[in-house]
Design brief:
About 50% of the residues lie in helices and about 15% in strands. The chain is α/β, with parallel strands linked by helices. The strands form three sheets. The chain has a seven-stranded parallel β-sheet with strand order 5-3-1-6-7-8-9, sandwiched between helices. Strands 12-11-10-13-14-15 form a six-stranded parallel β-sheet, with helices on both faces. The protein has a two-stranded parallel ribbon with strand order 2-4. The longest helix has 29 residues, at about 5-30. The radius of gyration is 24 Å and the shape is elongated. The termini are far apart. The relative contact order is 0.12.
């Protein structure tokens, strides 16, 4: 065969292979499910925000691509998501009164196959605007808590019938008014990156030195947004009682929010070096993993991320028995549950967890609970759900 003819055949085959590859890739792109995850804000990374970011970063993304849409976002949140190949659309450049409308318009332009709603106020508007979209996307809502402000909750329930599927993060959330009348309700416990928390636990000594924690101290950590429902005053009452009994106890409080200044002043009034308020601590999971004990004093919760982060690191928990906490904490095995609003009970259980024989038992129970809170399983579960609800 002449060399020129052989070259032509070779180029022809190459062109055919390239064309076939392009067709396969086009078909793959067409069949991928585009999911738009909508949350009010990623400025202050609380429970719902952490669950969303960690789940997306753990998602297998075999046939799903993600966009996160929100009113505003911190640079750290945007960088983490974009480094994981996830687009972020936020309305920070809009005037504040127009951000919600801008968010609805941006999501409409994206034309996703599935819209996953994580915040009730944006959800109420997006359900209505999506109803008139062509093609109409499937709507999924995840309820992260048991209550919202009454007007928001009523608006959310008035439009909730438009959802294709509703997910509650705990069985108590599934029974609450926030999911009343929901179609196709599922309960799915979320989770955290267990392997990463275990790695952080191995670095506990470094973190404790960073925060000047003496080697002899029993480190008790409280991580929560500075909001009324977190009941910081209850925690501080209990902390004062604990440090009066045990000189080993050292409380570190981390969090930010509208009551931050008030909490800082209250801590200063205690006049004790054994109770410190740190304010906002980026990546507070490191602090939790370095603790001997996590304490939660909330009046209500959904499924607290901080409790899951503690169990993943093998750190026992003392918490008020609210929301989904009793689904994670087995009293006397991996922590203790206390009566909401009772500072005496909270202090007594903290002191009980500090006893060496109790603490060793609880820590082992926490380690054995880590598999319950593995985010990888939840990420795969949501990928299957997106495929099921996607409109053909």
């Amino acid at each position: 065969m002449p060399a020129a003819r052989a070259g032509n055949i070779s180029r022809s085959r190459s062109a055919t292979i390239a064309a076939d590859f392009a067709m396969v890739m086009m078909a793959f792109v067409v069949t991928m499910t585009h999911v738009c995850e909508v949350i009010k804000t990623l400025d202050i990374v609380g429970g719902a925000e952490t669950l969303l970011i960690e789940r997306l970063l753990a998602a297998p993304r075999r046939a799903t691509r993600y966009t996160v849409a929100c009113l505003s976002a911190s640079d750290d949140s945007v960088q983490r998501l974009e480094a994981g190949g996830i687009d972020v659309v936020h309305m920070a450049s809009y005037p504040r009164p127009l951000r919600l409308i801008g968010l609805a318009a941006a999501v409409r332009r994206l034309r996703p196959d599935v819209i996953h709603l994580h915040s009730p106020l944006p959800a109420s508007l997006l359900r209505l605007t999506s109803f008139f979209s062509t093609p109409r996307p499937a709507l999924i809502s995840t309820a992260h808590g048991v209550r919202y402000r009454l007007p928001t909750m009523l608006l959310d329930r008035a439009t909730g019938w438009l959802d294709t599927h509703t997910v509650a993060v705990s069985s108590q959330v599934a029974r609450a008014f926030v999911t009343r009348g929901a179609r196709n309700l599922s309960t799915r416990m979320h989770g955290v990156k267990v392997a990463e928390q275990r790695r952080r636990a191995r670095e506990a000594g470094l973190v404790r030195r960073e925060w000047n924690v003496p080697q002899s101290s029993f480190l008790i950590v409280h991580v929560a947004n500075c909001r009324p429902e977190k009941r910081h005053e209850l925690l501080l009452e209990a902390a004062a009682k604990v440090v009066n009994v045990s000189p080993r106890a050292l409380f570190l409080l981390a969090g930010s929010g509208p009551l931050e200044g008030q909490i800082a002043r209250r801590v200063a009034e205690l006049g004790s070096d054994a109770v410190r308020f740190l304010g906002c601590v980026p990546r507070a999971a490191r602090l939790i993993a370095a603790a001997d004990l996590l304490v939660l004093s909330s009046a209500n919760e959904g499924l607290p991320v901080v409790v899951m982060e503690a169990l993943a690191a093998g750190v026992p928990v003392v918490s008020t028995a609210v929301g989904g906490v009793p689904e994670l904490i087995e009293h006397g095995r991996n922590g203790y549950l206390t009566r909401p609003g009772d500072s005496d009970d909270l202090a007594e259980r903290i002191l009980g967890a500090m006893r060496p024989e109790n603490h060793a038992w609880l820590r082992e129970g926490a380690r054995q609970s880590a598999d319950l809170v593995d985010i990888t399983r939840t990420a795969e579960w949501f990928e299957r759900l997106y495929e099921e609800v996607r409109v053909p």
